[in-house]
Specification:
Number of strands: 8
CATH topology: Double Stranded RNA Binding Domain
Helix content: 25-40%
Strand content: 35-45%
Number of domains: 1
Oligomer: single chain
Shape: elongated
CATH class: Alpha Beta
Largest sheet: 6 strands, mixed
């Protein structure tokens, strides 16, 4: 019974504030201007050496997927209410845990993305920032055999960081 009363109170409180102007809060914590209807995500070119040719497409699609699955915004090709553009600026692998004097036990794949975000309704939210994430892998595995999965994992982390910075004020 107390649970029903609490739910009713929450619904009542929400209905009292539904007519207010301001930011739209989604269930995922995103704060999207209520007048924003579209988002444009430009193709992120890879300027990093040694990066696989599929990295640009994989990252761009991951960011589009994140925005379409976690917002109500329609994806457009240009001039959205919210805009993301940039480039993949870093792609490297380095040993991180030395097993013996001549071999690493673990390697780390690092990817860096420079992102420029613009909001047509609130220029104070605009930013340009580099985001970097990594994934570790066992040195007994060749990078080429697990690269696709590592890139997918890193893209998941990067797109969440970008989403949080742009739409959650983190």
């Amino acid at each position: 019974m107390r649970r029903l009363a609490l739910v009713s109170l929450v619904i009542l409180a929400c209905s009292q504030f539904s007519g207010c102007k301001g930011l739209h809060y989604g269930l995922n914590g995103a704060t999207i201007p209520p007048e924003a209807k579209t988002v444009a995500i430009q193709y992120f070119q890879t300027t990093a050496t040694l990066a696989p040719p599929t990295l640009s497409q994989a990252f761009t699609e991951a960011l589009k997927d994140r925005m379409s699955s976690q917002t109500r915004l329609a994806l457009v090709s240009k001039a959205g209410d919210l805009n993301f553009e940039g480039s993949i600026t870093g792609y490297s692998t380095n040993p991180i845990a030395i097993q013996s004097t001549d071999q690493a036990a673990l390697n780390r794949l690092n990817i860096s993305v420079n992102v420029k975000y613009t909001c047509a309704f609130d220029p104070k939210k605009n930013f340009e920032q580099t985001f970097t994430r990594y994934a570790d892998y066992n040195s007994s595995e060749s990078l080429s055999s697990i690269e696709e999965k590592l890139i997918a994992d890193i893209n998941e982390q990067l797109t969440q960081d970008i989403f949080n910075r742009a739409l959650n004020d983190w």
